[in-house]
Structure formats: C-alpha cells, structure tokens
Amino acid sequence: MTIYIIGGGIAGLSAAYYAQEKGFSVSLFEASNHLGGRCFSFFDKELNTEIDNGTHFISGANFNFFKLISNCHFSPNLSDLGTTFDFYDKNANKFSIDLNSPLSLIKNWKKISYNLIASILNTTPNHADKRLFFKTLTKCFFSKNKHLYTAQNSLKEDIVIPIQSFLENKIDIHLSKQVLFFNERQIKLRNATIQLKNDDFIISTIQPVNTKFETILNLYLKTDIKLPNQAKVVGLSQCTGHWIIQKENMLSVVISAADRLKNTDIAPQIWEELSTILSTKTKLPPHKIVKNYRATIEQTKRAIRPHQKFGKIIYAGDYVSTGLPCTIEGAILSGENAINLINNFWENYSQC
Description:
Layout: E1 2-6, H1 10-21, E2 25-29, E3 41-44, E4 49-52, E5 58-59, H2 63-71, E6 78-82, E7 84-89, E8 94-98, H3 102-107, H4 109-121, H5 130-141, E9 148-151, H6 155-167, E10 172-174, E11 179-182, E12 186-189, E13 193-195, E14 201-204, E15 213-222, E16 233-237, E17 243-247, E18 250-255, H7 267-278, E19 287-297, E20 309-310, E21 313-315, H8 328-351
Parallel strand pairs: 1-2, 1-14, 2-10, 7-16, 14-21
Antiparallel strand pairs: 3-4, 5-9, 6-9, 7-8, 11-12, 12-13, 15-18, 15-19, 16-17, 17-18, 20-21
Helix pairs in contact: 1-6, 1-8, 2-8
C-alpha cells in the first residue's frame, strides 16, 4: 500500500510524517523545487539577505505544531515575542494588549478589532467568519502557553528544512514534479503515469480552481532603526500595516487581507506612517515588497470546504475544515486528519 501525497506544503509534510509513522509507504510530489509551500524563504540580492515569503506568527496554543516538531526530533529556533504587545496608531499614540489579561483586549477592542480579525483570518472583518475568529482568540487567551513566536532566522531554515531532513530518508520526495491530473485509478505527471493499486490512496493538498484567495503583503525594510523600547514586534492600529517585526537590521511590516493593495507600491505610504512611530526623519530605506496573492482562502461563513474524503482521494490543506484558521497549525492538523481517515479505513478493512 502506498499513499501518494500531492503538494509539499505544510499540510503535505504533516501527512507525510503521520503516514510514515503508521508504517505506510509514501511518495510525495511537489511542483516547485522546494518543500514548505507558502512557508519558504529566499535570498534577496537587493537587500543582500534571506527573507521569508511572508512572516508567520506561531502561538504557544498551537499544539499540533509543537507536537509535529517534537516528533521530528528537533527544537525550532524560534524568537519568543512574549505575551504583552504595544500598539501604535499613525500619530504614535500607544496602548498595550496583554494576553494574560482579556480585559486589556476588551478595553481597546475598537482600536484593535480590525487588526486582529484580518491578521488571524486574513479576511476583512466585514466578510470574515466571526465565529471562527472568536473561537481562535479564546483558544489563545486561555492556553497555558500564551506566548507568540516567529522564526528566528527564516521559515526555511528553522522549520521546513528540519522537517524535510527528518523525512527524506523515510519517504520518497519528488521535487519539480507537477501532477497534471489524478483520479482513483491513476496519477498523470508530465512525463509519466502512475497506475494506482487497489489499496493505494491519494492525499491532495491542491486548492480547487474556483477557490477565492486573499493576499498577504510584506514590506521588508533594511535599516538600523529599532522599534520603540527595543521591542521585537509592535502592533499597528488604524494604519495601513498591521504588525512590524524587528530582526537585526531588518523591519518587516505585515499587512493581511491586502487584496486592495496588491497592485500598489505602498512602501512610501507605509514609511510615512512608520516614521512618526519610529521617531525618525530618515528617507525610505532600501526595501522589498513581497506579495503572496494566494496566501490563504478567504475565510468567510460561505467558504466552501469539501468533505475531506472522497473514496480513495483524501483532501488536506486550507480548504478542508479543521475548526482552525488557515495557518500552519490548521495545515498540520488537516494532514494528520487525512492519515487518520486512511488508517481507520485500513484497520476496519483488515478486520473484515
């Protein structure tokens, strides 16, 4: 029996881990030349440094993330952002949110609601699934570990490569292998066709063609200017950006639900707002805009998410409902759930 996984993003890697853990033979096909999907990093020649395709926050409440990396026998090199976060509006007025104090959130709700909803669901508040948002927010506030984290160096170095290193001798990984078509009988690649046996399964993490996506935009600024009070991250209220993250001589501004901005060079506008907060009159420093047009699906109440299992084809990834937002955590859980479906079927079949 072989499990064929289509897509080497986080959901595919999660499925691959749990499949080999249960003793299944695994072949993973990834169309690009790297694993990690949207969680990847690249060297930017203009800034002369490694930058992420987009900044990802990891919550201490992300049980599935920490379970997976523990099972892969590595400790991620994460930057601990703490539990208390300062927020600034475009006039540099400051307020703080403490994850240990829900009252601080309630007190500043009008100032922070747009930022939090857009950041957690990558969907504008007027369209977002509020029930999913509050469920996620409650989970973070009542978790034993309320800290937030980001990758210390890069997503590729600190998360993706360690998982890949653990898996590469346990499963068959095929990079730059695009799947053109698949059904319950076969998988067609550009130069080959795989005929499925009766007990083989396919796990697809590929988004449906008609899926509506939202953009996440990151502005990377190369500068020695530091965030106020030597903070590693600050939130923004009623500004163009939503978060600013400090990494050595780099500031990263994150804007979620950024479809309205995806065709605009907004670096000067953002820098004008940040200059007040950073108390600087310096001109716009060297920068890079990274636009992830297919960052996540639009997470609305009407978002269509198919059932996870259709015969021998199992689905995983953002468009499969897990009760979690479209995040690393949700992707990991969807991959594990896919393997549990197959394993349960196989155990029931063996008993017949």
